[in-house]
Amino acid sequence: LFIPCTLVGSLALALMPEISGAKNKNSKQIAVSIQNALIFAIMVSLAIMGIYITVGKDITIFLFHSERAGELLIYSAAIMIPMSLSHMSSSILNSLGREYKSLKNYIAGAAVMLIFVWFLPEFLGIYAMIFGFFFSYLITATLNIIAIKKDISNVKIFSKSLPLLLLIGCASALTCYIVNSFSKRFLPLIISLGISCALSAAVFLLLSAMFKICFTDTILGKFMPKCLTKQKK
Questions:
Q1: Strand, coil or helix: what is 15?
Q2: Which residues are within 8 A (CB) of 67 and not within 5 positions of it... i.e. 6 or more apart?
Q3: Global confidence as pTM
Q4: Distance CA 15, CA 99 (A)
Q5: What's the sign of the alpha-carbon dihedral 188, 191, 197, 200?
Q6: Residue 138 and which of 76, 89, 103, 204 are 20 to 30 A apart at CA?
Q7: Kindly report the CA angle at 203 between 13 and 1, in degrees rounded to 5?
Q8: Out of 14-23, 67-76, 122-131, which region has the weakest mean confidence (pLDDT)?
Q9: Who's near 85: CB < 8 A, 6+ residues apart?
């Protein structure tokens, strides 16, 4: 579940000097960089979430010989989106000099997590932790993004790319499911999973490039092959 945070964290580290060193925090370039960084966090999460939802059981059967672990992985997959947004937005707030605000938002999310794991296991069992993680990260990410919007007024938080990204995520997930369902009949499970996950990621990247989700004139372009991106005019 924490795999997206590795990529998101790399972008956050690269983005921090650009934001903290900017003389004009409300410049268009900073706003675009922040917006694309948040979109990148969603992209990575959606790409991996689709794989976990469709072949999560096969992954855990191969790794842990446990189908139950796969069920929990499938139910937990949606955590990755607010989790990645929380990590990215926290780094952006820190770059803007709003460390105290970032800490307060984290504490607010942690309080929600505590409530879920303290009171709800009696009713939800282990799923109380899953819901706790989801709403904890969701609240922290939402509060962070609201704070970013107040500091950088021209950031477009609700990008037009989001509905398109959801459709692209569905297409890549469907690709993973179809390829794995077919190939595991004839190939060892590890090879089938490797092929289906690789093709799913390729479909996600190609469709994102086709619909020009990312541009090379922002720091986001450094994480995408130039042949898959187009310079914004």
A1: helix
A2: 57, 60, 61
A3: 0.85
A4: 16
A5: negative
A6: 204
A7: 45
A8: 14-23
A9: 38, 41, 42, 45, 137, 141, 144, 145
